[in-house]
Design goal:
The chain has helices spanning 47-55, 80-93, 106-110, 114-122, 137-142, 149-161, 180-194, 210-215, 221-234, 261-275; strands at 18-21, 23-24, 43-44, 67-71, 99-104, 125-133, 165-172, 198-203, 240-243, 254-257. Helix 1 packs parallel to helix 2 (80-93). The protein has ten helices and ten strands. It is globular and about 55 Å long. Strand 4 (67-71), helix 2 and strand 5 form a beta-alpha-beta unit. The chain has 293 residues and is an alpha/beta fold. 36% of the residues lie in helices and 17% in strands. The two termini are 24 Å apart. An eight-stranded mixed beta sheet has the order 1-4-5-6-7-8-9-10. Strands 2-3 form a two-stranded antiparallel ribbon.
């Protein structure tokens, strides 16, 4: 059975997936807002070690495995030939396997060309979770993302053209109060350009990132709800599924664009009206404790 080296993270939609850590940590790990892997040194696990873990899953469980998630934070950076071996081993081990997913940074996408991505897709790598964070270049520079919005769009479009689905995340509150509108509008424009199959909102929270959080004029609950509304208002993708079901969010939204656009805006307005009745809530800054993440 897999032996995990903590901390281990996975997207909400991979809750029922079998997880294999083929890398440890994040190959980029420079984003100042992100504390997920600050305590881990990045490394790539040997192919033979991963395949031994796959083979070690008890035979009685193998027919029940339909989804696999490859961790850690940037598994797509795994060298192509080795990744092909791992995907082939997964397909051989689990006869009912329908989908393999992984986190992917813009940097890791630069390590795979279009043909390689198509080959990975044909081996059941069907979805990549892509941290956009923001479509605003000033915000991206401030968090040391090391990519521009255009550079990330080009890499994301390359993956989509290879037939791999994208689940893109952006972070409410990332630009602080002063940059909130620019962050909201530019992020919506990026999603409109790329048209990812899924778009999710998270909220900035504290985890090994105190210096970054202190550098911001932090958003209140009111600011965050209005920022979300601005994104929803300016979103106009051909088709995408929107979610804000991460534990960091206090405003849960779910719908499809363009079908549910008006209803989602009403949902935000209704939530704003309800929380106005809670004394001091709208003007307070969200407080999160690290234990929740």
């Amino acid at each position: 059975m897999p032996q995990y080296i903590e901390p281990l993270f996975r997207p909400p939609s991979e809750a029922r997936s079998l997880i294999f850590q083929i890398t440890l940590g994040c190959s980029q790990n420079t984003c100042t807002f992100c504390g997920m892997y600050k305590g881990k040194q990045f490394s790539i696990r040997p192919v033979a070690e991963v395949i031994e873990e796959i083979a070690g899953i008890p035979e009685r469980y193998k027919p029940a495995i339909e989804r696999v998630f490859l961790a850690d934070g940037d598994a797509l950076v795994y060298p192509f030939d080795g990744l092909v071996e791992i995907l082939d081993a997964l397909k051989a081990a689990f006869p009912q396997l329908t989908r393999i997913g992984a986190y992917a940074s813009p940097q890791s996408l630069t390590t795979k060309d279009s043909e390689q991505l198509r080959q990975l897709r044909n081996r059941k790598l069907r979805i990549l979770y892509f941290g956009l964070e923001s479509g605003d270049d000033a915000t991206l520079a401030a968090i040391n993302k090391r990519f521009t919005s255009d550079g990330m769009a080009q890499q994301a479009i390359k993956a989509r053209e290879a037939g791999i689905k994208l689940s893109v995340t952006a972070i409410l509150g990332l630009a602080g109060r002063k940059g909130s509108l620019s962050h909201a509008h530019a992020t919506a424009a990026w999603v409109n350009r790329v048209n990812p199959e899924f778009f999710s909102l998270l909220t900035l929270f504290h985890r090994h990132n105190d210096d970054f959080v202190r550098s911001l004029d932090q958003c209140t609950h009111r600011d965050l709800m209005l920022e979300a509304r601005e994104m929803l208002l300016h979103l106009a993708p051909a088709k995408t599924i929107l979610r804000s079901n991460h534990v960091s969010n206090f405003l849960n939204l779910a719908g499809s664009y363009p079908k549910d656009r008006e209803r989602l805006l009403v949902d935000v307005d209704t939530a704003l009206e309800r929380v106005r009745r809670i004394p001091g809530f709208l003007d307070s800054v969200p407080k999160y404790t690290e234990e929740y993440y």
